[in-house]
Specification:
Chain lengths: ~270, ~100
Amino acid sequence: MGEVYVITSGKGGVGKTTTTANVGTYLSVLGKRVLLIDADIGLRNLDVVMGLENRIVFDIVDVVEGRCKPKQALIKDKRFDGLYLLPAAQSKDKTAVSPEQMKALCEQLKDDFDFILIDCPAGIEQGFKNAIAGAQKAIVVTTPEVSAVRDADRIIGLLEAYELHNPKLIINRIRFDMVKRGDMMDIDDILEILSIELLGIIPDDEKIIISTNKGEPVVMDEKSRAGQEYRNIARRILGENIPIVSEEESLGFLGRIKKFLGLNNS
Amino acid sequence: MFEFFNKFFNKQSSKDIAKERLKLVIIHDRANVSPELLELIKNEVLKAIQKYIVIDDKLLEIQITRTPSEQKGEFVPALIANIPIKSVKKTEILNNEADELK
């Protein structure tokens, strides 16, 4: 029986969809059966990030309104065994699905998958309530900015109110050069404020944009630092004990020399 | 190195400013206390205390902060008031003591 995760943040543009796509993809690479659900009805994007936008026939609203069976709406990702996407509707809005319908849908599909990852819309209204309704676990994504951390704190409070306890945190788009200058909050600063468990840190990486341009998840890019961290996060979800290290530590001695000489641009 | 220079010149880094601002705004978010409500509380407290003590109402400060709770690692919001005393109204205290003696 599968575990249902919701990936949420409060603030928009911090990397929920990218996180859902990459963590989900790598869980499937690790041999799990994974379903990605785009709960951002009206502003669907998980399909383009995954590069599956041309294969949509039915969407989540078609399923809840009974125009098709749940399994007919699932898009199988041909590149990765066991990876499926249930796209959001683009023409409807957030009210097209109710929390009860979402919960029933997750219940129905749970047995066929090891993991269901729900990509939550930004905000705290109906769309958020729908997205968390069927989930048992939550991952909160933030960036090291005051606006994103503040919204993350609000979301953590709301998750608690909806009985989704102990959410895990991903700090996205961290720039270690700025942290070193004292111009960006570091991991400890953010953890002190939010006081929840850390699941991973994703360094700011332009390869994210390049891979999104192509519709290929960055986890498949061996050289990408962000991809490496997404792979680590997927493994941590499976219970592997992989320490979370900041850039300086992870580079090692040779890496640090390379960086010093300006040879390491990845 | 930057850190060192910042400390040397006693300049607060922008991340420290961010952290301080965040902490304060989150305390208010969590407790759902608006500045207006805080102002109301302040005025009521002022009234009550002024019965017994002469205080400098211009310097009175009331704010919500975070304090460690009994449970380890947990922080809870706390109401902190900073009330500068000018003088104690002797007559009130004497009257009260007189009342108690009766």
